[in-house]
Specification:
By secondary structure, this protein is mainly alpha-helical. 49% of the residues lie in helices and 11% in strands.
Amino acid sequence: LLGEPPAHLVDLMHSRFESLIAGAAPEAIMEWAAVDIGLRARLVRAVGRSMLARRFGRCVFVSSCAAECPAEGQGYYAAAKLAGEALYRSLAVELSGRGVTACSLRLSWLDAGRGAVFLERRREAVEKRMPIGRLVRMDEAVETVLFLLSASASSVNGTVVTLDGGLSATKTTF
């Protein structure tokens, strides 16, 4: 949580596939589905079983506001995030009452990972359109994840929490 995950782990669970929906090669679509959805489903299965055996666990899927409002070329990225949210929501329903909770955290632009690359060219324009006048800080994202993993959040289950500085409440697009 305190730094960038190792690149090989990110690449295992999330591809860098970005394409216009109509322009994607069929082979690339199949590979995307296997990586971005298939591996995540296998992880949720394994983690869910492990937590169920202990009768305790907290699962937080880090999603993206692009799931609700993708930019051009982000259709597959958004679909993968929505699939992840659906898996975690289903996990919450299936393991409800057995000590395991699951939810998703939708984050806005962060100066890390894919967001940092995008922000290199557009930081000022993005910050200007953010209702809070700045990006969501990494420490805010980490503190929110830690809260969702805590005992205090035991009732946050089967839902999506949005941490975007109010961006999704506007009609702003980038």
